[in-house]
Amino acid sequence: AITQNLTEALGNMARGKLSESNIRDGMAQVRHALLEADVNYDVAKDFCDRVTEEAVGEQVLKSLKPGEQIVGIVYRELVNLMGPVDHSIELRRGEMTVLMMCGLQGSGKTTTCGKLAKMLKEEGAKPMLVAADLQRPAAIEQLKVIGEQIGVPVYAEPADRSSPVKVCQNGRKEANRQGCNILILDTAGRLHVDDALMKELIEIDNRLMPHQALLVCDAMTGQDAVNSAKSFNEALELDGVILTKLDGDTRGGAALSVKAVTGVPIKYIGVGEQLDRLEQFHPDRMAQRILGQGDVATLLETATRVLDEDEMARQQQKMLEGKFSLDDFLKAIDQMKKMGPMKSLMKLIPGMGQIAGAMDELGDMDPDKDVKRLRAMIQSMTLDERQNPDRIDRSRRNRIAQGSGTDPAEVNDLLKQFKGMSGMMQKMAGLSATDRFREVQK
Ligand code: GDP
């Protein structure tokens, strides 16, 4: 919604003949869009004041395309609002790097500890997780399960016979013994910021002297997330925030306000429940997404990370030869699915942000559900039919519809679409990968 409202406000400015009063009206609309997205009031006001001041400058008004210039200013200021960010986590030879993870209950702290451990492990580090959340009864067990899934050791002690500081200290010893080089402390959370919680965290902070203290915040809670970041930072001096659940229907306000309100940058974002859904936070990419210009960099990164290159090459070859079948189509869909939910992928494609947003409002248009129907239809075909869809006549079509719980018209649509797509794919297969992405951008 923020993308839609912002692009509308900016679009209005770009269309009309620009004058100082137009710009002020337009920026009032921008401010409204920001507030609606749950951006902190002062942040929204300062932001718009800054953009207005720059935009009413003579050079902008006299320039050839003042509308575009203003979008440029908004983009730059959005990037400044959220950055700069230093993602580095220093590893020193012979020294244990200690990361202290904090957050309120339900923020996604334990899950994020696992995600971070997985990411660091994939980068060649040897992490160990420490179950120092003795507050939430299930947290220890949950961390052990996560550790198992990602193949990272977890240090834990029985909650009733230990203390958080003791667990952390013993965890460090065990990590040294096992030759690990990063210790990730999953500390206690509570429902609200309170003195007892802060006291416990400050004690861990003093005794363990972590290299970084990272706060996990739930983006869905908007301003509450920002306020809790403020309180945590006053007690602990945070090095960074990890904003979770940015995949959901968040209004985006937290992402825009955290740095401006607390001075602490967002370093990572959680974009799904699975343990590989953690990304570095890039203010420029976020600004592009917010302005509905998509995020091709992230799309490409995800693609190279999760897609099976051999399989892609095989499919490309088949397309070139015009042998791409419905079976391959299914495989291609499965590959796409590995990259995440369709809706969130579509938001990364330039120009699609607004459409995906509009789709949220329509509600019944769910690309993932459509994919399920597609799969059901293809799976109800015989192998021969999948290779030679031309052979599918009326009676076969009825059978497929019945087998997949769809109706014949839908099967017909699929076949038509597939035919059209094969033609297009053959054309696209001839282009190089980067050209193909350019094609998508148009
Ligand atoms: P904790 O109490 O802070 O340790 O929270 P948990 O790690 O148990 O997470 C709470 C819930 O949030 C769980 O259901 C997680 O799967 C979910 N969660 C965590 N991170 C994300 C995220 O980035 N996206 C989504 N959609 N869910 C998340």
TrEMBL record:
<dbReference type="InterPro" id="IPR004125">
    <property type="entry name" value="Signal_recog_particle_SRP54_M"/>
</dbReference>
<protein>
    <recommendedName>
        <fullName>Signal recognition particle protein</fullName>
        <ecNumber>3.6.5.4</ecNumber>
    </recommendedName>
</protein>
<keyword id="KW-0733">Signal recognition particle</keyword>
<dbReference type="GO" id="GO:0005525">
    <property type="term" value="F:GTP binding"/>
</dbReference>
<dbReference type="InterPro" id="IPR003593">
    <property type="entry name" value="AAA+_ATPase"/>
</dbReference>
<dbReference type="Pfam" id="PF02881">
    <property type="entry name" value="SRP54_N"/>
</dbReference>
<feature type="region of interest" description="Disordered">
    <location>
        <begin position="383"/>
        <end position="411"/>
    </location>
</feature>
<dbReference type="InterPro" id="IPR000897">
    <property type="entry name" value="SRP54_GTPase_dom"/>
</dbReference>
<dbReference type="GO" id="GO:0003924">
    <property type="term" value="F:GTPase activity"/>
</dbReference>
<keyword id="KW-0342">GTP-binding</keyword>
<feature type="binding site">
    <location>
        <begin position="103"/>
        <end position="110"/>
    </location>
    <ligand>
        <name>GTP</name>
    </ligand>
</feature>
<dbReference type="GO" id="GO:0048500">
    <property type="term" value="C:signal recognition particle"/>
</dbReference>
<comment type="subunit">
    <text>Part of the signal recognition particle protein translocation system, which is composed of SRP and FtsY.</text>
</comment>
<feature type="binding site">
    <location>
        <begin position="244"/>
        <end position="247"/>
    </location>
    <ligand>
        <name>GTP</name>
    </ligand>
</feature>
<dbReference type="InterPro" id="IPR004780">
    <property type="entry name" value="SRP"/>
</dbReference>
<dbReference type="GO" id="GO:0008312">
    <property type="term" value="F:7S RNA binding"/>
</dbReference>
<dbReference type="Pfam" id="PF02978">
    <property type="entry name" value="SRP_SPB"/>
</dbReference>
<keyword id="KW-0378">Hydrolase</keyword>
<keyword id="KW-0694">RNA-binding</keyword>
<keyword id="KW-0547">Nucleotide-binding</keyword>
<feature type="binding site">
    <location>
        <begin position="186"/>
        <end position="190"/>
    </location>
    <ligand>
        <name>GTP</name>
    </ligand>
</feature>
<keyword id="KW-0687">Ribonucleoprotein</keyword>
<feature type="domain" description="SRP54-type proteins GTP-binding">
    <location>
        <begin position="265"/>
        <end position="278"/>
    </location>
</feature>
<feature type="compositionally biased region" description="Basic and acidic residues">
    <location>
        <begin position="383"/>
        <end position="395"/>
    </location>
</feature>
<dbReference type="InterPro" id="IPR013822">
    <property type="entry name" value="Signal_recog_particl_SRP54_hlx"/>
</dbReference>
<dbReference type="Pfam" id="PF00448">
    <property type="entry name" value="SRP54"/>
</dbReference>
<comment type="similarity">
    <text>Belongs to the GTP-binding SRP family. SRP54 subfamily.</text>
</comment>
<dbReference type="InterPro" id="IPR042101">
    <property type="entry name" value="SRP54_N_sf"/>
</dbReference>
<dbReference type="InterPro" id="IPR027417">
    <property type="entry name" value="P-loop_NTPase"/>
</dbReference>
<dbReference type="GO" id="GO:0006614">
    <property type="term" value="P:SRP-dependent cotranslational protein targeting to membrane"/>
</dbReference>
<dbReference type="InterPro" id="IPR022941">
    <property type="entry name" value="SRP54"/>
</dbReference>
<keyword id="KW-0963">Cytoplasm</keyword>
<dbReference type="InterPro" id="IPR036891">
    <property type="entry name" value="Signal_recog_part_SRP54_M_sf"/>
</dbReference>
<comment type="function">
    <text>Involved in targeting and insertion of nascent membrane proteins into the cytoplasmic membrane. Binds to the hydrophobic signal sequence of the ribosome-nascent chain (RNC) as it emerges from the ribosomes. The SRP-RNC complex is then targeted to the cytoplasmic membrane where it interacts with the SRP receptor FtsY.</text>
</comment>
